[in-house]
Give the backbone structure.
Amino acid sequence: MSEDQAAGSREAGSPGWAGLPRGVWALGVVSLLMDTSSEAIHSLLPLFLVSTLGASALSVGLVEGVAEATALITRTFSGALSDRLGKRKALAVAGYGLAAASKPLFAIAGSVGAVLGARFVDRIGKGVRGAPRDALVADITPSASRGAAFGLRQSMDTVGAVLGPALAMALMATAAASFRTVFWLAAIPAAAAVVVLVAGVREPRCEIESPSRFPLRRRELASLPRAYWLVTGVAAVFTLARFSEAFILLQADEVGLTPRLIPLVLLVLNVAYAATAYPVGRLSDRVGRWKLLGAGLVALIASDLVLAFAGRPLEVAFGAALWGLHMGLTQGLLAALVSDTAGARLRGTAYGVFSLLGGVAMLIASVAAGALWQTWGPAATFLTGAAITTLALAGFAWLAARRRSGRA
């Protein structure tokens, strides 16, 4: 029996809807609940930083860049540890639990530094859970369905990202525009996510020999296939062009959208993301992943251009929808490509290293976006993103030509 067949057979007795394992659906619900909590906070956080705590745009970029980079870099070590131990669920529970415990810290934060600390704890939790969870999805899903499985988990995660801003707007309307009240109540779905994970996900029996030593070593990393490193490099370039969505919210504020309605921008973005990630994942299982990734780059260029010249809230919302389309065309596919190319033995490590390079790129992109915004304004930030994405698209076309000719 091959590794992929073994992976599929471990959950063969518990199929869920649409032919995907029940564990994949349970992990999707966990992602939905945690993202509802996180996005209820994050949809208001830039405004909270600027209007309540007096932060600058550069400070927002620094907070977002450090937070996201922390999450992605932490995934490097948790993924390798999950390979070494042959256990993924325990690390996922620890990560989700840490993220849930961080939510009340936002409600009591009284300074930019305190918010940074809360984001740091929250993102460490995300980093601890991320690679083991993605590896667990791959472990329990047959290879022929992995695009659909990752697309489903990403779509359900993004449904949470739709519900979060909607919840934030509803609570702001009923709580006399109190940021802190929203932050307190957002802790409830985060706690529920941990309960669902503990009760609803069964870790499959490990049938792949674990590395004899901790896998973050040169010899082990060198054993990862060349195709995997190509995917990882492409993803890092994507991330350089895709800074934090916090700047889309700041652009909504710039064009005059009232604070109570600003979470609507994230809602629009995430509706587009949720609506496309699962269908795109299923389609990629049939037609391949690379052409769809190229379409995602085109969508990001269009989004940046719309946002750069937006003068009204409706134009910002359109740019946000294109940004969400880009995410739906790229994020689940990249996760599936890592599984396609890395193999089972170092799957957690592969996801971790993939995230490490993405984390460095995210830190650079978000801090640079904040500096551009503060120095030359919003248009410079989004036009620079469009320029970098155009260069990435040219490189992507070159790689695709080499793949067709058999030289890559």
Remarks:
- The CA atoms of residues 59 and 156 lie 31 Å apart.
- The chain has one domain: 19-205+223-405.
- The first helix runs from residue 3 to 9.
- The chain has a mean pLDDT of 82.
